[in-house]
Amino acid sequence: MTIYDVIVVGAGPAGSAAAYDLAVKNYSVLLIDKVRFPRRKACAGGLTIKAAKALRYPIESVTRKACHHLEIDRRIEKHTTLKSEKPVVLMTERSEFDFYCLNETLKAGAEFRVVKKLHAATERERSVELATEQGSLRSKFLIGADGANSFIRKSCAPFPEFKKGFAIEAKAPIEEGRHFEMAFDFEVVKSGYGWVFPKGDHLNIGLFTIDDSVKLKADTLCHYCRKKTGSKTLKEMAAFSIGFGGWGYRPRSKRVFLVGDAAGLADPLLGEGLHNAIKSGQAAAHAIIQEISGGDSASLCYHQRIRSIKADTLAAYIMARWFYRFPSLGYTLLLFPFIGQGLMKGYAMGLTLSEIKSRFFKFSP
């Protein structure tokens, strides 16, 4: 049996980021996923500048549109536009983006395999074994990058702080002569927002909530789309979970690490998960490399390297609880130039929420 240095379960941005950094250092890494790429991926596809900067390669070839402006709406009725000289979000199609990231990772030397069914993950003293439909796979370390419904988390790396948010999205056509900016619409769903993301030839439109008790249904999205865009045509509708609670994640294993949504590292305020997925994947790879090369334990190193990510998700969660409890007040505050423009400048610079707060909203006593 081949014993890999690392097996990564899940070939999305988090898994590919980890596998890429391992492969370029000539470690043997097997990246597995339950489907062959390109594949349909339910996701709004907005890539923040901080996420784009975190990647090891350029993404111009899979960027559909660079958005400089953001419409902030309330109940569809009231709105204001926040503007930026530089892009704040790059629009991608997740199927294209993920396929591109996977191909870059394979070029770096990683191996990819489709494994449709995992039966068990067992950590041993010096290795981890995966029981699959194709037989057993073994490695020195295992990275779970398999999303909010992670098999690896449930099987061998649970943590009670894990929470779920929920989103539903679809594609809508753009009528000739009409123009849309990127938009967030508050108070159209409890504890969340609606969004409109222009992708050049179509719109990605959806609803998001941090409250897993809120049921977002197809007719709710259709109603929102008609009021917001006038379109009655929605295609490729899909719903998906988003992983939160990562501020409470601590690697309890010596050889199994969770990254991205599997570790609950999505931003609870906006539901954005790509930046933290990429950064946590890279952090896990770095930690494993350190231990294999004779440094500190991977578990300790990984815990230290994701501290800033965890702190940022906790800050976002506290802000989300406040913002979505008092949405009218939150909307009003965004209209103040130093707040709205401070956020736009920070996102255009590729800063995290904590960095934006420290740089633009530091108040003297």
How would you briefly describe this protein structure?
It is built from eleven helices and 17 strands. The chain has 365 residues and is an alpha/beta fold. Helix 1 (13-23) runs parallel beside helix 6, helix 6 (274-292) packs antiparallel against helix 7 and helix 8 (307-325) packs across helix 9.
List keywords for this structure.
365 residues; seven-stranded mixed sheet; 34% helix
Number of helices: 11
CATH level-two architecture: 3-Layer(bba) Sandwich
N-end to C-end Cα span = 63 Å
> Largest sheet, described in full?
7 strands, mixed
Q: Which CATH top level class fits? A: Alpha Beta
Q: How many structural domains in the coordinates?
A: 1
Mean pLDDT: 93
What low-confidence regions span 5 or more consecutive residues with pLDDT below 50? none
Structural class: alpha/beta
The H/E string reads EHEEHEEEEHEEEEHEEEEHEEHHHHHH
- The name of the CATH superfamily reads FAD/NAD(P)-binding domain
The count of β-strands is 17
Shape descriptor reads globular
Proportion in β-strands: 25-35%
Would you kindly provide a written description of the structure presented here, covering whatever features stand out?
The chain has 365 residues and is α/β, with parallel strands linked by helices. It has one domain (3-162, 244-360): FAD/NAD(P)-binding domain (3-Layer(bba) Sandwich). The chain is 34% helix and 28% strand. The strands form three sheets. Strands 1, 2, 8, 9, 10, 11 and 17 form a seven-stranded mixed beta sheet that branches. It has a seven-stranded mixed beta sheet with strand order 6-5-13-14-15-12-16, sandwiched between helices. The chain is globular. It starts with a strand and ends in a 5-residue tail after the last helix. The mean pLDDT is 93.
